[in-house]
Amino acid sequence: MSTDHVTRAQTGSTRRSFLQSGTAVTVAAAGLASRPVRGAEPGTALETVRLGLVGAGGRGSGAIENSMSINDNVKLVAIADVNARKPVSLLRRAEPKYGARVAVTSNKIHTGLDGYKRILDDPDVDLVLFATPPGFRPRHLLEAVEAGKHVFAEKPTCVDPAGYRICRKAHALAEANGTSIVTGTQYRRQSNYVESVNRIRDGAIGEVIGSQMRYCASGIWYRPRREGMSDTEYQIYNWMHFIWLSGDQIVEQAVHNIDTMNWIMGGPPEIAYGGGGRFTRPDDSQMWDNMAVDFVYPGNRMCSFMCRQVPNTETDNSNVIYGTDGVMTIYGGDRGSLMSDRDGTERWSMKGDIGAAYQQEHQDLVNSIVTGNPVVELNDTADSSLTAVIGRMAGYTGKNVTWDFAVNHSTLDMFPGELNYDGDMPNPPFAIPGKEPLV
Ligand SMILES: NC(=O)c1ccc[n+]([C@@H]2O[C@H](COP(=O)([O-])OP(=O)(O)OC[C@H]3O[C@@H](n4cnc5c(N)ncnc54)[C@H](O)[C@@H]3O)[C@@H](O)[C@H]2O)c1
Questions:
Q1: Which of 114, 216, 220, 247 is placed for a possible disulfide with 159 were both Cys, Cβ 3.0 to 4.6 Å?
Q2: Predicted TM-score (pTM) above 0.85
Q3: Ligand 1 atom, smallest distance to 253 CA
């Protein structure tokens, strides 16, 4: 168990402490309301946590496996996915492995863009896991909290400032409800990351003066349009390549590095300055394939960031933190951590185990529910998602983008006003710096 999640669990407000603190008045005055939460009243703690999954693709299936393999007291009872084939293939894999703990009857498999609402309305679901494309996350999340559900939300939790504000609201309401929100930022629970951050905080590399993050890969999937697909269906199917759904690489993928940096720096940066472009994307992709951003954190600490998805290029997924007395390198995946002197002499190292971290987040979440000690960590992940968003905005527009602008002034809201699964949706153009407006 990581020390970080203990801190998070201990600082999560319980329903009881919330009511005692008198914050109820503030929340009621703010107009926040939700349905009753099963298991929240004294003496009614849950023994079995019943899961409902929204988005049964790669990570949704992975999240169910992570949770069921580490928690004996969870049961999968409902699945929603716009693609009817996805729940079927998930169940085909999970049923033989977990037997009666997989109890999804045919009336609990939902399709359509509003399928998730059936899960939120279902009194048999305690915990909803969201693993759809990120563009849907803020609105789904808030509705789930309003429905009195505990939530697991994959990263990133928003792709624009409008979504960020919805996340903040959902976090506040979950605290008021006494429900949990754990997010898919697994590195915050990965032992070598936690050990590295603790060492940095203990002064092992001296004072942190700057850092460098890279998520450089050799590509990403692209799903060609299938015959008969509507525009909307196609964009949701090939969601990585449409910014309203994925946020581009910096948000969708590199949010892991950015989350690590915000964790180490103690919060989000003040300003972003960036650039980039695209050479290798398919014509109808809206994504860039490379981006470099300088983030300035409070205290004039500079963090240089780079991401790339270009075939036949050198890959690197790492976070390097420079201190006055040494350097800490924390690699992505299982590659571990390495601390050295400024001259490169190794002082400490540790292996990584990302599989254990993926399980840990689900164990912490389910424990928080059964013990009645909610963990609400959405704000941190929303901050990291918005940090990535200001990096993208800086790159796309070619302008300096401040944290204050994004939080308090930006009107950027990419979620379509109306969404019809069978409807038309023009293919959006990719951004050109100097032409893309900063809004
Ligand atoms: N934490 C991690 O390391 C990690 C790793 C991979 C993916 N992810 C995140 O998980 C999420 C899902 O990624 P993935 O790789 O599983 O994608 P995927 O395309 O494999 O799965 C997404 C699923 O959501 C379904 N879907 C789309 N829109 C929906 C809607 N409105 N309602 C219901 N279902 C809908 C799709 O049909 C698909 O089955 C993304 O946010 C991604 O960034 C996190």
A1: 247
A2: yes
A3: 43
